[in-house]
Amino acid sequence: MRKIVIGTLRKYGLFFLLVIGIISFNSYIFKGDYRISENIDGVSNYTRAISNTGIKENIKFDSTDVYSLGIWLKISSVEDDIKVKLLDGSKEIYSGDIPKSDVKEGEAKEVTLKLNGEKGLKVKKNKTYTLTIKDNSKRKSSSLVYLNRQRKLWHRTTYKLLDSKTIRSTAILFEIAVLSLLVYLIRFSQYQKRLSKFENQFLLVSVFLIIGYALFIPIYRAPDEWMHFARAYGVLHGIFLIDTSGNINIPSNLIPVTNTVNSNYIDTIKNLHVILSSQISSTNIINMALYTPQSYVLQSLSIGIISIITKNVLLIFYGSRVLVGMLCTLIIYYSIKYIPIGKEILAICSLLPMNVAERASLSADGFTYAVIIAFFSFVIYYLKNKNNMTNRMRVLMYMLLFFLASCKVIYFILGFLILLIPNEKFGSKLKGIWNKLVSMIILMVVSVGWLRIASRYLVNTNGGSSSSEKVEFILKHPFNYIEIMNSTFWKNIFVYIEQMIVGPLGALNIEINSGLLIIALVVLVKYCVFDFKLTPRVLFIWILCLANVLLIYTSLYVQWTPAINGVSQITEIIGIQGRYFLPVLPIMMISFQLNKINNKCVGVINDWRSIISLLVINMLVLSNVIGFFAI
């Protein structure tokens, strides 16, 4: 019996450990009932006196279970007797007092009224109810209630979406079911042999995760996603270049959410009915003007396809998220399939939570990463492959180069990886030199050409107005600039690592549990094998990666870092995020294996456990995202 138990634990130990992790983490995240507050604008300076005749306001609800109402008010005296009632026609469905313990005399504050205690109140969605606020104390000095910008009563509604037991049980059962299904498919099903390959495991896991991230990251909540959506929509309709002011004409309700940085699931519920309007309005997206129209080829294609099926704004948005994520994943799948070494590294890096979240959004970063990885895989493929490059493959090479140079100009330097391909692979030494020369011309013309175009937008960006002075400072004081970069790097290195691996997600304001970061790092570090020789090829890759990092820093220094007190007073580069280093990470890690490329049998560490572990880490990250919005 003891031997059976030990054998079972050895064989299925990781599975049981992951199940325990799923149960423990979800029990920790979903402790109480799942309640979400309405995402609304802040209060204005407009007020209204609460008299003995009372204030009446018609309100509607976006869900059927109302937990609480928040109102902003200023109590003139703790003796005030302020009553709040909610009426359904003439029928009173709630009556309560302002909780005096929550406010101080003369203090303006949001006060929360729990409706029917912890149980909440059942209402009808989108039905009009009347909220009355009345002061029965008959004092001369009135308390004040605050209004919104439209001079209507400001109020925040908190909805109870699910009870704690339901959401906790649902999350645990669903995640264990997905884990069990994928372990079965990979290890025991008739597809076991096919799924023994890393690229197929990656594709299988990615399909689940792309759908998960696309649906559960709230609407427009990825970094600048609403602007990416507007830019991609503009490209679809022929607006390739934006006016220097940054304004673009789009349907007036393409972005129905006002506070996109803090959007939550209530915003999705509220706007499910929104149909694309024919009325056009101007919106400023100056930061997206710096992106080439080529960066949005997948987003525009996806929006166009979904728009044929439906005109519902949210269905277009979420459908495009899923489709973009799948297309980017497909590019990475073929990159993993054809790269002769580092398959496991490429799969692991591409399944890091931040990486998956970027692919499952309308940001340009997901496509940029996929293109860079595809180009790198292409180069490594021809370092190993003995056959000469066909015309078809040469066309593919130029296409990848074009998109690499134009998706995000800061990564154009990685296009020089093409110099690693032996000239003979092009048919002859002369043809190799010629093709590489053409490639360099494409890289420089596309990247420098777009920089010339984009420079006209810099004056309207956060720190771009002083861009010429910053460039001059770098040229005149290179060592001072190196010191600024060095200081910025060491000051933020742990933040960069966290941002590159797990987040924060959303608009960089959805905090992810540090425990998940540590576990993801353990899985990643497992493949940091430093068994390599410093060959000229490896050194060349390192130089390009270092140059790319310098370009990232310099781009953010010139474009984004404000010079409030003058360029010479800048001590730190602002705006650098760990996710910008994601394309460099697998390239650096795979370079450690480059000395093995000529081995007749290049060993692939086909460890399905790492892929499955990252599946669970990502599912727990999604639980973290969902739980982040709970009150």
UniProtKB/TrEMBL annotation:
InterPro entries in the record: DUF2142_membrane
UniProt KW keywords: Membrane, Transmembrane, Transmembrane helix
Segments traversing the membrane: 12-30, 171-189, 201-220, 296-318, 330-354, 366-383, 395-421, 433-451, 539-560, 580-598, 610-630
Domain of life: Bacteria
Protein name: DUF2142 domain-containing protein
Organism annotation: Ligilactobacillus agilis
